[in-house]
Amino acid sequence: MKLVHLQVACAENRVIGRDGRLPWRIPEDYQHFLSQTAGQIVILGRVCFESWTRAELDGRRPIVLTRNRSLARDGVRVVDSLPAALALAETLPGEIHVCGGERIYAETLALGRPLRLHLTLVHAQVEGDTRFPEWRHLRWRELSRQESADANFRYTFYVLETL
Ligand SMILES: NC(=O)c1ccc[n+]([C@@H]2O[C@H](COP(=O)([O-])OP(=O)(O)OC[C@H]3O[C@@H](n4cnc5c(N)ncnc54)[C@H](OP(=O)(O)O)[C@@H]3O)[C@@H](O)[C@H]2O)c1
């Protein structure tokens, strides 16, 4: 079984999204996300998929969770559950990166299988309607941590792995 990677940027109050979009623009984090997931399998919900541009889709193998089968097209696979997405991902070359949203993150954290969390923690309280589930109570080993900032935000890139 492949290791499952989770990709998320979340605020201190666990907010990750607002009105179907990211609640911030942090170019360094965006580039970080693109380089981490380049060439890999990305599992994402339908709302995320609809917000992704060509820059995010190109060079990745998206598996979209939705009841709407008609979203399937060349290079875009569609499934209706996380277990189906993971089973399909096992048959494809590349790493598995779970990219949200909220319910998909929650189901992934509850899987009880080895996870590597690529977390950008944005050191701010941010308004939004979508949250990353509480993760701090789970047991993690910290593989790396890098502090950074731009004109608007301070943030930390963490890589954590389940114990
Ligand atoms: N900061 C970050 O790192 C980050 C990461 C990801 C997302 N976001 C933000 O979060 C928001 C989007 O996330 P969201 O939670 O609202 O939506 P989402 O997960 O992207 O999409 C929700 C839809 O996906 C399908 N779906 C989700 N979970 C499913 C499951 N377990 N089984 C089957 N189908 C499932 C359903 O599609 P159908 O209704 O079509 O059946 C559902 O309506 C946006 O604001 C986005 O910018 C932020």
Q: Which secondary structure elements does this structure contain, and how are they paired or packed?
A:
Blueprint: E1 4-11, E2 15-17, H1 27-37, E3 41-45, H2 46-51, H3 54-57, E4 61-65, E5 77-79, H4 82-90, E6 96-98, H5 102-109, E7 115-122, E8 130-131, E9 140-149, E10 154-162
Bound molecules: NADP nicotinamide-adenine-dinucleotide phosphate.
Structural write-up:
This protein is an alpha/beta fold. The chain has one domain (6-144): Dihydrofolate Reductase, subunit A (3-Layer(aba) Sandwich), CATH 3.40.430. 23% of the residues lie in helices and 34% in strands. The chain has helices at residues 27-37, 46-51, 54-57, 82-90, 102-109, and strands at residues 4-11, 15-17, 41-45, 61-65, 77-79, 96-98, 115-122, 130-131, 140-149, 154-162. The strands form two sheets. Strands 5-4-3-6-1-7-10-9 form an eight-stranded mixed sheet, with helices on both faces. A hairpin with a 4-residue loop joins strand 9 (140-149) and strand 10. The longest helix is centred in the N-terminal third of the chain and has 11 residues, at 27-37. It is globular, with a radius of gyration of 15 Å. The chain starts with a strand and ends with a strand. The relative contact order is 0.26. It binds NADP nicotinamide-adenine-dinucleotide phosphate.
Question: How would you describe this structure in keywords?
Answer:
single chain, 163 residues, alpha/beta, eight-stranded mixed beta sheet, two-stranded antiparallel sheet, 23% helix, binds NADP nicotinamide-adenine-dinucleotide phosphate
